[in-house]
Specification:
Blueprint (H helix, E strand, L loop, with lengths): L1 H19 L5 H20 L1 H25 L4 H6 L16 H4 L5 E4 L6 E6 L2 E7 L9 E8 L2 E6 L3
Parallel strand pairs: 3-5
Antiparallel strand pairs: 1-2, 1-4, 2-3, 4-5
Helix pairs in contact: 1-2, 1-3, 2-3
Length: 159
């Protein structure tokens, strides 16, 4: 009985090790072999003991896989496999470039027809813009009315 229990424990330790160390399936092969010999020894001891080991295998295998996956991120290979969340200081707040807020009230020229979105040259920069109200034809003079995040709202002005 001790040999059968030892082989069962060895099989599940090898399953956990397979998930944490790269063995290209050799540890899984060892685990399957150990489990097979544990079942043979258990059935030699009696049919009830053998079926008990089969049921233990069905319930312990997912537990062994789960424990192996829980340990994996803390191994040297697991640290390379998984991404880590950024720190609070490392997160950039806001995505709008700083120069966009300075464009409010500036005049420019529509580089494309704004139907309602397009491109314009404002203060020497090519900017993606959205026309407020009606469409603006290419080459017309426009004025920046509002900047909300990365959305630059413009309106055609009379020349």
């Amino acid at each position: 009985m001790t040999l059968a229990i030892g082989l069962l424990v060895l099989a599940f330790v090898l399953v956990m090790m397979e998930l944490t160390f790269p063995s290209f399936g050799l540890l899984s092969l060892g685990a399957a072999t150990a489990y097979a010999f544990a079942l043979v020894r258990a059935f030699e001891l009696g049919t009830n003991t053998g079926w008990t080991f089969v049921v233990l295998g069905v319930f312990l295998l997912p537990i062994a896989v789960g424990l192996g996956l829980k340990v994996l991120p803390h191994t040297p290979i697991g640290r390379r496999l998984f991404l880590h969340a950024p720190t609070r200081e490392g997160v950039q707040h806001g995505t709008a470039p700083a120069h966009l807020a300075e464009l409010v009230g500036a005049d420019g020229e529509a580089l494309t027809s704004l139907r309602p979105a397009g491109s314009a040259r404002i203060a020497g920069h090519r900017v993606d813009v959205v026309a407020s109200g009606r469409f603006v034809e290419k080459g017309r003079t426009i004025r920046v009315m509002d900047v909300n995040g990365t959305r630059v709202v413009v309106r055609e002005i009379d020349a």
